[in-house]
């Protein structure tokens, strides 16, 4: 069976920055593979394009240019945040204010953002809201573990199901 729209695909892969010599960003292995519904619009389009037509047991390696991934690093996504927003019940969450700490936040419109602490100053914190892979090409090496038809329920939900998700999912 080949990878195409409405198949559930199981992969293992390694993601590196820029090329095969780049820093390893993510390593997905057989004990906890990545499972997704192909063509459901959740993945980078170029990622799906590269996998189309592959079968079980086939290996792959490909690069996705930053413009087709997370774009350029934006200087204006690095912002000063008043320290007091990290107060909970009047107490500063010092534990959050560590360089490199990843903090899920919300903007004024209620959009979910993820910021990384870059610097902690007297009364403000410098946060970087760029995607961690902004400004970088993505280099994937991996293998297709399984390709199967999506169930009717998966197609209705628009995502793949696996044993771990069963039972804890809201309908
Ligand atoms: Zn579901």
Describe the structure.
This protein is mainly β and about 170 residues long. It folds into two domains: about 5-70 and about 135-155, Chitinase A, domain 3; about 75-130, Thrombin, subunit H (Beta Barrel). About 10% of the residues lie in helices and about 40% in strands. It has two helices and eleven strands; from the N terminus they run E-E-E-H-E-E-E-E-E-E-E-E-H. It has helices spanning about 45-50, 150-155, and strands at about 5-15, 25-30, 35, 60-65, 80, 85-90, 90, 100-105, 110-120, 125-130, 140-150. The strands form three sheets. Strands 1, 2, 3, 4 and 11 form a five-stranded antiparallel β-sheet that branches. It has a four-stranded antiparallel β-sheet with strand order 5-10-9-8, with no helix packed on it. Strands 6-7 form a two-stranded antiparallel sheet. A hairpin with a 6-residue loop joins strand 1 and strand 2 (about 25-30). It is elongated. About 10% of the residues are buried. The model has no long low-confidence stretch (mean pLDDT about 90). Bound molecules: zinc ion. Zinc ion binds next to loops.
